[in-house]
Amino acid sequence: xxxxxxxxxxxxxxxxxxxxxxxxxxxxxxxxxxxxxxxxxxxxxxxxxxxxxxxxx
Length: 57
Known about the structure:
The chain is mostly helical. The protein has two helices and no strands. The protein has helices spanning about 20-30, 40-50. The model has no long low-confidence stretch (mean pLDDT about 85).
């Protein structure tokens, strides 16, 4: 489940990554063998941020 993933810092099972952007960059490399540029990382982070649950007012 990805809802609120951008609020889950620190990231990874050992808490070694403090930002969602770094987690995105690292996972693209570890899992896909891809080095993302800053624009790609920002776009993915924006998408994940859009999945945040908004509390009812």
